[in-house]
Amino acid sequence: GSISGISSTALEVSSDAFGKLLITLENGQKWYQTDGGRIRAKAGDTVAIRTGLMGGYIMQVKKGRSVRAR
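^ thats the sequence. predicted structure below, dont judge the formating
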């Protein structure tokens, strides 16, 4: 199934050794940042996920900068 776009609230936010985010949403989905963009997120932030132009997914926190995610 494909996701055209969802919006949910971040329940938990962590980052790996490279500063890439792992965000767990209220709906139970986990999204991992796959590019090197620098974004900030914290629990309670609104997170939007949409399908990217070249496949994959785009994650955007609080209408800010977008990064690729899976």
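The first strand starts at residue 5 and ends at 15.
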